[in-house]
Every structure is written in structure tokens, then in C-alpha cells.
Amino acid sequence: MNALPVDTRPPPRAGRRRYLLCPPEHFAVEYAINPWMDPAQPVDRGAALRQWEGLAAVLRGLGHRVELLEPEPGLPDMVFTANGATVVAGRVLVARFRHPERAGESAAHLRWFTAAGFRGVRTATEVNEGEGDLLVAGPRILAASGFRTTAAAHREAQRMLGLPVVTLELTDPRYYHLDTALAVLDHDRIMYYPQAFSPASRRLLRRLYPDAILARAADAAAFGLNAVSDGRHVVLPDAARGLAEQLRAAGFEPVPVAVPELRKAGGGPKCCVLELRSEGGPS
């Protein structure tokens, strides 16, 4: 096996971040709105809560601030806070979910952001699933269409959040949100799974990010790209071992976590973490 290439650039630098998480107190798989969900498969809510607590502890241990959204009965997917909004420079665009099963999460996020004192909080008029499909990547937002968020929502996000939006098309239903197929590592570096995208989107990503980390099929299927990066530390599923090696060779510090219960609903570490970007910086 050939050795992985070593990145010779200066080491990535970590930034202190502020995140919104929601305990999976009502977590369940009661419906199927993505290929990973099977209501017939048993879910251990206690194990899900312990795994989520482990993720939250890791984020706090890395020096980040963790805020909590109160879980509500009847909304089993509220643990996936990343889908509920996108926050840029203190401006908040609250999601409008495609599936009625998750629609109530929008109001819960709207209440939290309003109570927390955020200004310019608006709910999307177009179907928009927050950081599931809108990933802030330095000077731009990478935005996906194909399964959940619409192309019209990309135009709305650009108007409301003040950053140019780059549209990408997802084509594999297993990677139904952008954050299952691509992760932002720092201001100008990403990692992604090329086969999740249309040929035109692959060409665009190659042009914008010629030095991106390309995930292998096994690591993508392990939800390795559903990762949280602070610019140096990359929190990702422990099953994505090959991707962890690639990150280490590129100068990042992989931080493996285990969240297999949450994966039964098609979620991983990033799905559980919504970044709260203030006007003064990334956190």
C-alpha cells in the first residue's frame, strides 16, 4: 500500500466555536424519509443519549461553547440541530423542512434564536434544510439541491445571509444532505465524496478545491463526511478510519466519536451540531 501524501503547508489552526445541540430525549425512528431509516429496526434511546453526551463532551473538551435546544415530544429528529437553521455573522435563516414529519422543528428553532437575542432571524420561504444543505466555507456558502433544499432556496439564502452561494447537485439518495457528502475543514479546504455529486458539480468542486481530500466509498458510507471541524480538529465517526488517516496526513487532527444509534436515522456528528456564527468571527 502506497504511503499517503503529506501536506507541507503550515499546520491548520483551531478556532473556538459556539454550537447548538439538542439532547435526543425523544429520539426514535418512526418514519422513513431517507434510505438509512427503517422503523422496523430497534432503536436504543438510552444508548443514543449516551453517545450524544459523548459528542457534546468532546466538543466542550476541545474548548468550544455548547448551547442546548430543549427537545420537544413528537419531534424525534430534533437531535439533528444542523438541519434547523444557517447562521452567518449573527443573521439566522431558519429552515423550512421538505417533509411534514420535521416541520415542527422550524418553530422550535425560531423560538430559541429569538429568545437568545439573535437579530435578523427569519424563517425561509423556500424549502431549505439549514446546515444540512448550506455549508459556510470561508467566503462562500456551498449549497446542495437534488433531494431536500431547492435551488430557489439557494437564491434566498444568498439574499438573506449575504454570502455568494455555489450550487451543487446531489445524485445519490444515500447522501441526501450536503453534510453527508462534504465537510468544510477550514477557510479554504474541504473533503468530499465525488460519486455523491453530478458530473458538473464534480468539475466545479475540482476547480474550486483542487487540493480537497477525496473520501473513499467505505468512509462515505460510514458517514465519515458528516464531520465537525474547528479548523484543526475534525470530529468524525470512528468507523471512518481511512478518512482519519487522510486528515492526519493533511495536517488535521481527527477526533473519532461513536454515534451508531443516531446513524439509524441517517445522522452523524455534524447533523447534531449547528454552528452559531457571531458578527465578530466564526464563533
UniProtKB/TrEMBL annotation:
Active site: H177, C271
Signal sequence range: none
Keywords: Hydrolase, Transferase
Protein name listed in UniProt: Amidinotransferase
NCBIfam families hit by this protein: DiMArgaseDdahMtb (NF045659)
GO molecular function per UniProt: amino acid binding; dimethylargininase activity; transferase activity
UniProt key word Transferase: yes
Top-level taxon: Bacteria
Any GO BP: positive regulation of nitric oxide biosynthetic process
Pfam families: DDAH_eukar
The keyword Calcium is assigned to this record: no
Family indicated by similarity: Belongs to the DDAH family.
InterPro entries cross-referenced by the UniProt entry: DDAH-like
